[in-house]
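RESIDUES AND SHAPES:
===
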Amino acid sequence: MSDDITSYDNDLMSGIAAFETKDFTRAMRLLSPLADGGNAEALYRMAMMYQTGLGRVKNEEYAFKAMQQSAEKAHAYARHGLAIMYLYGECVEKDEQKAIEWFKLAAEQGLPGAMMTLGMIYENGQGVEKNEVEARRWYKMAEEAQEENEE
């Protein structure tokens, strides 16, 4: 059993490394079986590759499903990615309310980018009533979260 875990972890780390070095064909080969098995990180990276056509032809339906599955497994970046999809209507019908819900979930996990986006949403009144106080609150939280990440 430990050999299976080691092989699984090795494939995940190798797949992430291939993704980060832009070897998307190798990343796809290594991460695809892990995504099929429900690994949140593999699902997130597969979604990104399919959304933009990295190493493969674009498949927006798969990209959305994989991003959603990863987000539902509490992957912070997938929650942010899913929120972006809903906010701009990428791979799914535009739904600003769902976008805000997913941004808030990502923000609760400490993701400064989600907090910053929520600030912009409230500042611009995008899908919500314009609210400068709420916008400043999100911007401040984003700044604090970023400072914590830099420490």
Remarks:
- The first helix runs from residue 2 to 20.
- Helices lie at 2-20, 24-36, 40-52, 60-72, 76-88, 96-108, 112-124, 132-150.
